[in-house]
Amino acid sequence: MITGRILRDAILSGANNISNQRSRVDELNVFPVPDGDTGTNMSMTVGAARPELEAMADDCTVAEASKAAASAMLRGARGNSGVITSLLFRGFSKALEGKKTADADDVVAALQKGVEAAYKAVMKPTEGTMLTVARVASEEAAASGIADVVELWKLVMSAGQRALDNTPNQLPVLKKAGVVDAGGQGLMVIFEGMQIVFEGGGPVQCEEAAQNKAKLSTTGAGKGVFTDDLMKVEDIKNGYCTQFLVNKNEGASIAKLRAFLESNGDSVVVIEDDDVANCHVHTADPGKILSHAIQYGYLTGFKIENMHEQFLARQKQGKGLEKQKAAEESEAASEFPYAAVDPDQAFGFVAVAAGEGLASVFADLGVNAVVRGGQTMNPSTEDILAAVQSVPAGTVFVLPNNKNIIMAAEQAQKIADRKVMVLPTRTIPQGITAMLNFDPDADADANSIAMMEAAGKVSTGLVTFAARNSDFDGHKIKKGDIMAMENGKIVNIGSDITKTTYRLARSMVKKDTSFITLISGCDVSEEDAQRTLELVQAKVGDGVEVTLINGGQPVYYYMISVE
Question: Contact, 43 vs 226, CB < 8 A?
Answer without folding.
Answer: no
